[in-house]
Amino acid sequence: MKPAEPLQPAGRIDAGTLEAELEWLATVIERRLQHYFDKTAASSPALPDESLPPPPVDAAAGPYAAALAHHAPEPAERLLLALALAPQLRPQLLDVLWTRNEATQRPFTEFGGAAAAAAGPFLPSGETACFLLAGDDLALRMHAMALLAPQGRLLSHGWLQLAAAPADAGVASGALASALLPGPRWLAEALPGVVVPEADRTSLAVPVHTQLEWSDLVLPAATLAQLEDIGLWLAHGRQLLNDWGFGRRSGPGHVSLFHGPPGTGKTLSACLLGQRFGRTVWRVDLSLVVSKYIGETEKNLSRLFDAAERQGWILFFDEADALFGKRTSVGDAHDRYANQEVSYLLQRIELFDGVVILASNLRQNIDDAFLRRFQSVVPFALPREAERLRLWREAVPPQVQSEASLDLPRLARQHEVAGGTIVNVLRFACLRALGRGDALLRAEDVDEGLRRELLKQGRASS
Questions:
Q1: What is the pLDDT of residues 350-384, one digit of tens each?
Q2: Is residue 171 a part of any domain in this protein?
Q3: Cα(305)–Cα(207) distance, rounded to whole angstroms?
Q4: Which of 379, 397, 418 is the last residue of a domain?
Q5: Model-level pTM?
Q6: Which residue, 379, 401, 430, sits at the end of a domain?
Q7: Handedness of CA 84, 88, 90, 93 (dihedral sign)
Q8: What sign for the dihedral angle of Cα 254, 260, 264, 267?
């Protein structure tokens, strides 16, 4: 067996690469401000440009340099990655953006940003990113906004995230007013073991993304058709309500229940709907929404729905039966307040000017009184044999060669499992192949991975 390579220290970083990235960012900020306050300049240049290229990268210098070399982000994307890290790595670098406008005696709106605390560092926002890249040039600004769109790779790949700013931060509403933070995937790859704050947990929800495409969905035709109906609402709902007059007869949004076993594609489908129609999907953390303090739950929900309406989010409530399950009789004050919280949440959902998706493993767990008020109920069943075979085949990485004895049709025929289970099995087997260094997907590894997954589900493999 090939000897295992020694593990790298969790906190290993290449300070030289980060130093160069931050110096480059500082130069771009200085150049942008010089040009912005030069009233004789004709128009805003696109930055970074040929005169301000990103520093060279030595992939062997460490994980940050290796991540840059592997993914090859565009100079503008690379600049925004450095911008998101600056408040944690060199907060004083952004202090210049606190400059006040002498005419209004307030910070420049176009510089964006939000204070994380009363005397905290300048926290860049999407607006800050647009200003650095485009200045006051409208065409360049549109390009910068496209980089921060949900379907752009900065957000969809988890390199960056736009998190809602604190309610008292004093910033304007809108997606670009959200704080620009490093994404979890970029942190895990480029700064392993280094703790950098992620999304503000006071937002009550976190954005969810996927690198898959709509064509990667493997679902029954009836389920796909119902997802297309939700897409029709996202594309034409405003016209239906306002121009065709249905706003007088129905609620302003669309509420859907996704129900089915774990791993059948409920979360993925929600992500792909958002990706397809340019909406960010936010998964609601019910543990943060439901407060133990009386009255706090309603305040939390009000903040959440207000932010979602302003920014056009799709709200995804996972494990929704925790709030929308079968109601019990009121036995004490706690039960009474719990029912009030559910009633308030249902009221906000029905008045929400957008799409809400509730997910549950079991349809029968949801109270029928709630189901009657939803616009659609979408089933996610375990895939059939042909669908399972497609899932097996498409989940095998192209870098891997399958052993001749690996019989995927047999696996699809004999084991009724969800797509998430199939991905877990192949992940296990491919890690075994990487450990051997032969890039060969072996039948024995797939069988062992399948056995482990079935045991997790309380099932025995044949």
A1: 888 899 999 988 887 777 777 778 899 999 999 99
A2: yes
A3: 14
A4: 379
A5: 0.63
A6: 379
A7: positive
A8: positive
